[in-house]
Design goal:
The chain is α/β, with parallel strands linked by helices and 251 residues long. The protein contains 7 helices and 11 strands.
């Protein structure tokens, strides 16, 4: 693994040292920061057979774990959480101590978006780490019985919109709880809503050296409009490109 931009550098060979190196590379600025983490094939596919993991390699999985370790909360759509078998976030073996030293939970909280409250049972389990549980965000029109079922597990349910979740209201709810570093993991429809609301500060896109074909979706669906981004970092590993694009108004 080597950094190409903004200045060439070689990543450490030792996995623990490499994780710490990536944590420095991907450290977010102070204050509220909304980062999207996605992967795409060379031909623009966001998944293989419905799962993003089919495009990744070991280094992408390491980066995925590092960006989670840097976040206060991880935001994901319910469909993505089901297809990718999400559960509560787990502490990073090499970075969790740095979190707890700052008074943060050892792992990030999970924020799951669902208008129908169709939540994966794994996300309703109590986390092993205090403060790293699940919060469900839904709408005012969500099924009342489903909401009661989720709340019976001790899960907080928040309404942030009438018929659909409003990304701006969602961010207000998250930031009001003291969370600043927000990691958005998709899927493409949810990312499209954040993109349309113009509240994304950064997109971290892994470009996989694979092609998929077929009709797999892009990383952003729904919400039209052109947004300009500036490349601030580029890392290469085994043909995979790990890019960081910052909203041009912030560069």
């Amino acid at each position: 693994m080597r950094r190409l931009l903004p200045h060439p550098a070689q990543a450490p060979a030792d996995p623990r040292a490499r994780a710490r190196w990536l944590a420095q590379e991907y450290a977010a600025p102070e204050g509220l920061w909304v980062r999207a983490q996605m992967i795409s094939s060379l031909d623009g596919a966001s998944s293989v057979a419905g799962r993003a993991g089919g495009l990744a390699n070991a280094s992408d999985e390491m980066l995925f774990a590092v960006t989670r370790a840097l976040a206060d909360v991880i935001v994901v759509g319910a469909q993505t959480a089901r297809s990718e078998f999400y559960g509560p976030a787990e502490p990073h073996p090499d970075l969790s101590e740095a979190r707890t030293a700052l008074g943060r939970p050892a792992a990030a909280a999970m924020v799951v978006i669902s208008a129908r409250l169709d939540i994966s049972p794994a996300l309703l389990e109590q986390p092993a780490v205090p403060g790293a549980g699940t919060v469900v965000v839904t709408t005012d029109s969500a099924p009342a019985d489903a909401r009661r079922r989720i709340e019976s597990h001790g899960i907080e349910v928040i309404a942030a919109g009438e018929q659909s979740v409003n990304p701006t209201r969602l961010m207000e709810e998250i930031s009001s709880r003291g969370h600043k570093s927000i990691l958005l993991e998709g899927g493409p429809k949810l990312l499209g809503q954040f993109h349309a609301a113009k509240i994304l500060d950064e997109i971290c896109l892994t470009i996989s050296p694979r092609t998929v074909g077929g009709d797999s979706s892009r990383i952003i669906l729904a919400g039209e409009g052109v947004t300009n981004w500036s490349l601030v970092s580029l890392i290469e590993d085994e043909g995979f490109l790990f890019t960081r694009y910052r909203h041009q108004s912030l560069s």
